[in-house]
Design goal:
443 residues; alpha/beta; Spore Coat Polysaccharide Biosynthesis Protein SpsA, Chain A; seven-stranded mixed β-sheet; 55% helix; globular; disordered N terminus
Length: 443
C-alpha cells in the first residue's frame, strides 16, 4: 500500500517482457487440452468434464441469485450526504477527436447536482485532429471552471498516458474517470459519494448502460451484454469474489490511485490492469447498479470486432503480466477461485472449444467440451434475462423473451472467434501497443 508510483512502474517493465512467450504457452496448453481427449479417450476425462460443468453452472447461478437482494441493499445508501461532508472530486475525461460529443458532455458535467466549489472538471485534448480543440476553447469562455489540458498527438501512452499527464494538475481527494461519450443523471455524484462513504469504499464502478439500444440488433445486444456483465460483477462483489473496473464511470480515491502506480501506459485496457493492481493491494471495488453511466454502443460489425479485440488483448495481458502475483499472492482463496472461474470461461473455453471441434473433425469423434460450453451459455442467458428484467434508471434495456435471449446468445458467440484470433496474434507477433479509438457519433 505504501509502494511508490516509481517503484511500481519499474516493476511493471519486467511484468510485460514475456507477454508473447506466455501467450504462446497459453496457446500450446489450450491445444493440448482441446486435442488430448480425442487421442486418449477414457471415462475419467468425461467424468472430470461433467464435474467441471456442474461447478460452472452452480457458481454462475449463485452469482445471479446474489442480485435478488440488490435493490434492498442499494436503497440504504441514497441518504444525501451533507454538502459540508462531501469531498472534492476531480473529473477527468480523455478526449481525442470527440467533436461530436464533447459539447454535450461538458454541458452535462456543469449541470451535475454537486457543490461547484468541490468539483473540478478536466478535459484532456489528447492530440485531436478534428474540431475538438476549437470547441473546447469556445466552451472554456462559457464555463470558467472548465480546465483544458492539451497533449500532442505523439505524446504516447494512449488514454492511460493522457490521464497520467492530467493527474499532476489535480488537487481533489477523489478522481472520477469518464469517457467523452458519457452521460450521467444530475444526482449521480451525490449518490455515488454517499455509497462510497457509507460503505468505506475507495473505488466504485457505475453500471454501464447503452444510450442507443434501439438503433439496431448489435446495439440492443450490447445493452443486454452490459446488464449481464453488471449482474455478474455485483454477484462477484457480494460473494467475496473479484469485481472489476469498466473504464467509464469509475470513482477512485486519489491517494490509492497514486499508491498503486496510476494508469498503466503499457496496456490497451487501463481499467482491467488497474483492477488487478487494486486487487493486489486488497482494495475492494464497489459496484453501483443505479444510477448508471450511459454511453454509446458501436453500431457496426467492424467497430464491434475492433473494440472486442482490444478488450480481449487487454484482458489477457493482465493475466500474463500479474499471473504469478495472482496465483501466489495473498489475495484469499475465494478470490483466486473466482478469478480462475472467469479466466477459464472468458479466455480458455473459446480457444479450447475451437480446438475441440477441429480435433473432432480430424479424429472423426464427437466434441468433448460441449457440456461446459452449454453450461456457460445457459448461465449467461440466465444473467442476461435477469438483468434485462430488473428495474433500472438508465435507457430502456430490451425486455427479455426466449427469442431475444436466443438471438443474444448467437451474438455472444463472437467471443469464440475474437479470443482465439487475439491469442494467436499475441503469441506470434511482437508486442505492439495500439489504442484503437471507438468512434462516438453523438446521440
Amino acid at each position: 500500500m505504501k509502494q511508490s508510483q516509481l517503484e511500481f512502474n519499474n516493476k511493471n517493465k519486467s511484468f510485460h517482457k514475456y507477454r508473447r512467450l506466455k501467450a504462446f504457452f497459453f496457446c500450446i496448453s489450450s491445444l493440448l487440452l482441446g486435442s488430448i481427449p480425442h487421442v486418449l479417450i477414457n471415462k475419467y476425462s468425461k467424468v472430470l468434464i461433467l464435474i467441471f460443468t456442474f461447478c460452472v453452472f452452480t457458481y454462475g447461478v449463485l452469482l445471479i441469485f446474489k442480485n435478488f437482494k440488490r435493490e434492498t441493499i442499494d436503497n440504504k445508501f441514497f441518504t444525501k450526504t451533507p454538502d459540508s461532508q462531501k469531498p472534492t472530486i476531480d473529473i477527468l475525461v480523455s478526449a481525442r477527436d470527440e467533436q461530436n460529443v464533447v459539447s454535450r458532455l461538458i454541458q452535462m458535467l456543469f449541470e451535475l447536482d454537486y457543490p461547484h466549489e468541490k468539483l473540478n472538471i478536466y478535459i484532456i485534448d489528447d492530440g485531436s485532429q478534428d474540431n475538438t480543440n476549437q470547441i473546447l476553447q469556445k466552451l472554456a469562455k462559457k464555463y470558467e471552471k472548465l480546465k483544458i489540458i492539451s497533449r500532442s498527438i505523439d505524446a504516447g501512452g494512449g488514454k492511460s498516458g493522457a490521464l497520467n499527464h492530467a493527474l499532476q494538475f489535480t488537487s481533489g481527494e477523489w478522481i472520477f474517470i469518464l469517457d467523452a461519450d458519457a452521460q450521467l443523471k444530475k444526482d449521480t455524484l451525490n449518490r455515488l459519494i454517499s455509497y462510497a462513504l457509507n460503505e468505506s469504499l475507495y473505488v466504485v464502478q457505475l453500471r454501464k448502460s447503452v444510450l442507443n439500444p434501439q438503433k439496431n440488433f448489435l446495439t440492443a445486444c450490447q445493452s443486454i451484454e452490459m446488464t449481464m456483465d453488471a449482474v455478474f460483477q455485483y454477484g462477484r462483489l457480494t460473494s467475496s469474489g473479484v469485481s472489476e473496473l469498466r473504464g467509464n464511470g469509475q470513482l477512485i480515491k486519489k491517494d490509492l490511485l497514486l499508491n498503486c502506480g496510476s494508469f498503466n501506459e503499457d496496456t490497451v485496457t487501463d481499467d482491467l490492469d488497474l483492477s488487478v493492481r487494486l486487487l493486489l493491494l486488497k482494495s475492494k471495488i464497489g459496484i453501483l447498479w443505479d444510477p448508471p453511466v450511459m454511453e454509446e454502443a458501436v453500431e457496426n460489425l467492424s467497430g464491434l470486432f475492433s473494440q472486442r479485440q482490444r478488450w480481449a488483448e487487454g484482458g489477457l495481458q493482465r493475466f500474463f503480466d500479474y499471473g504469478g502475483h495472482l496465483i501466489f499472492g495473498d489475495i484469499g482463496l475465494t478470490k483466486k477461485l473466482d478469478l480462475t472461474y472467469f479466466f477459464i470461461l472468458q479466455y480458455c473455453l473459446p480457444l479450447i472449444s475451437i480446438i475441440d471441434i477441429t480435433s473432432s473433425l480430424i479424429f472423426k469423434s464427437l466434441p468433448v467440451y460441449w457440456p461446459v460450453s452449454i453450461s456457460a451459455f445457459t448461465v449467461s442467458a440466465l444473467a442476461a434475462w435477469f438483468g434485462s428484467a430488473t428495474r433500472n434508471e438508465g435507457p430502456n434495456i430490451p425486455k427479455p423473451n426466449i427469442l431475444r435471449i436466443f438471438a443474444f446468445m448467437i451474438y455472444l458467440s463472437h467471443w469464440f472467434i475474437v479470443i482465439p484470433l487475439v491469442t494467436i496474434k499475441m503469441s506470434i507477433f511482437p508486442k505492439k501497443i495500439l489504442w484503437k479509438k471507438t468512434l462516438h457519433k453523438g446521440l
